[in-house]
Automatic annotation (TrEMBL):
UniProt organism field: Fulvivirga lutea
Cellular component per GO, a single term: cytoplasm
Entry keyword Nucleus: no
Residue sites binding ATP per the record: 110-116
Localization: Cytoplasm
Enzyme Commission identifier(s): 6.3.2.9
UniProt-recorded name of the protein: UDP-N-acetylmuramoylalanine--D-glutamate ligase
Pathway participation: Cell wall biogenesis; peptidoglycan biosynthesis
Enzyme class at the top of the EC tree: ligase
Keyword set, alphabetical order: ATP-binding, Cell cycle, Cell division, Cell shape, Cell wall biogenesis/degradation, Cytoplasm, Ligase, Nucleotide-binding, Peptidoglycan synthesis
């Protein structure tokens, strides 16, 4: 082909796009403003792909016919503005890969719950014997897998940033789990821009495609009331979940949540979405029931850690906004000791005040600046502690708790004040719990 394709950003998606472009005969140039990780650099070197790091060569980049941009690079970046001014098309890796695959795409987006639903959908299809791959925001490059293109289906987790770079993407099944305010800095602080980004998932959907969506979400319902599309609509609603937490699917299948490994109303939404997708793909009820029992979720999402003195410890470090915490709190009937805090992203804590009043007996504020969290709940919660130590947070939480209580790490905030990321926060929490349990077991043996 000979046309120059530039890849901006050499992470998982960027490197995958570079490898696919090279395999399809393009001249490929990779440019990363930061330092490229060794594992990706070695893949580029192996395929003879030219790259640069620590800056952008504007002259070369502006000679491109196409630019594939990492979703993490905002439109406000200087190099992106220059590319736009030059009239060069910019797409996402998912969009580029879609044009080279024969596989049907099951695409999943939403402010919260994407990873759980993506992994569960993939698990249900794979366990039922379908030839299916996993890709997207879960950390697997779709483009890299499309080089061999050996799968009949791909389950793809998609963020709004990835959707922003898609124009012709046409999933066979699209799932929209929810929309709540998030990443507002990337959308001019206009919620309608964020909603429009999410709805790009069905922009090209036709009458033979399917759209599974959470109908109880006001932003989704409002947009759909004015949205014209021939796609087959499959609404999910909590009206189909009984007080005994039994999920009703298509008025025929009834599955108690107690027969699954996922807790809470938010996971009922996730599961019903995945179940509907599996049914559309022809998976049997028996295989679905079995798959729901054997599923293992990604870590840091309502993850059971251990029990100490009859107190359960739950790691929900991925809950970095109030909406995610609301679902977490609603998952329990037991009294809670809540560990929260970090970098506040403009949280409105009034959204969870009722749940906190009903269930939280103590709050451990974990962060460098806990003032907003403290001010929001100091009238509601008598037992409150501030700390910047995860070990102190865990030990203090156990002191507040009694047998059959739950200690819940569900921060509602970003983690960058004390931790590298939410994964690091979750791992340190789990390690602190393990150390505390070891201390209790050691003392028990000494007595």
């Amino acid at each position: 082909m000979g046309h120059l394709v530039t890849i901006l950003g050499a992470g998982e998606s960027g490197t995958g796009a570079a490898l696919l472009a090279k395999a399809k005969g393009y001249d490929v140039f990779v440019s990363d403003y930061g330092i490229i990780a060794d594992k990706y650099k070695s893949q580029l070197v192996e395929k003879g792909i030219e790259f640069e790091e620590g800056g952008h060569s504007k002259k070369k980049i502006l000679e491109s016919r196409l630019v594939i941009k990492s979703p993490g690079i905002p439109e406000t970046a200087k190099i992106v503005k220059k590319i736009r001014e030059a009239g060069i098309k910019i797409v996402d890796e998912i969009e580029f890969a879609f044009s080279y695959t024969k596989a049907k795409i099951i695409a999943i987006t939403g402010t919260n719950g994407k990873t759980t639903t993506t992994l569960l959908t993939y698990h249900l299809l794979k366990e039922a014997g379908l030839n299916v791959g996993l890709a997207g925001n879960v950390g697997h490059s779709l483009a890299k897998q499309v080089i061999e293109d050996k799968y009949d289906y791909f389950v793809v987790e998609m963020s709004s940033f990835q959707l922003d770079g898609c124009y012709l993407l046409k999933p066979y099944i699209s799932i929209l789990l929810n929309i709540t305010p998030d990443h507002m800095d990337r959308y001019e602080y206009k919620i309608e821009n964020y909603v429009s980004s999410k709805f790009r998932i069905i922009k090209e959907a036709g009458q033979n495609d399917h759209f599974i969506y959470y109908a109880d979400n006001e932003l989704i319902a409002d947009k759909l009331s004015r949205y014209i599309s021939p796609v087959k609509r499959v609404p999910i609603t909590l009206d189909d979940v009984s007080d005994q937490m039994v999920m009703k699917i298509n008025d025929q299948i009834q599955i108690p949540q107690s027969e699954t490994v996922l807790l809470g109303m938010h996971n009922a939404i996730n599961m019903m979405s995945a179940i509907h997708a599996a049914l559309i793909m022809g998976v049997s009820e028996a295989d679905i029931r079995q798959g729901l029992k054997t599923f293992k979720n990604a870590p840091h999402r309502m993850e059971y850690v251990d029990t100490i003195n009859g107190v359960r410890f739950i790691n929900d470090s991925k809950a970095t906004n109030v909406d995610a915490v609301k679902y977490a709190l609603a998952s329990f009937t037991e009294p809670l000791v809540w560990i929260a805090g970090g970098v506040d992203k403009g949280n409105d804590y009034s959204l969870i005040m009722d749940e906190v009043n009903a269930k939280v007996k103590a709050l451990v504020c974990l962060g460098k600046d806990n003032s907003k969290l403290r001010d929001a709940f100091h009238n509601q919660i008598v037992n409150m502690l501030e700390t910047d130590s995860i070990h102190q947070a865990v030990r203090s939480a156990l002191e507040y708790a009694q047998t059959n209580d739950v200690v819940l790490l569900s921060p509602a905030c970003a983690s960058f004040d004390l931790f590298k990321n939410y994964e690091d926060r979750g791992e340190q929490f789990k390690q602190a719990v393990r150390e505390l349990k070891n201390d209790f077991e050691t003392k028990a043996l000494e007595q």
